[in-house]
Amino acid sequence: MGQTTIGVLHPGEMGSVVAARAKDAGARVIWTSQGRREETRRRAEAAGLEDVGSLRDLAVASDVILSVCPPEAALDQARAVAATGFDRIYVDGNAVSPATTREIGRVIEGAGATFIDGGIIGPPPRKPGTTRLYVSGPGAPQVKALFGDSALNVIVLDAPIGAASAVKMAYASWTKGTSALILSVRALAAIEGVEEALLAEWRTSQPQLIKRAEDAASGSAPKAWRFVGEMEEIAATFAAAGLPDGFHLAAAEVWRRLSSYKDAARPSVADVVKVLAAKKQ
Question: Do 146 and 6 meet the contact criterion of CB atoms below 8 Å apart?
Answer without folding.
Answer: yes
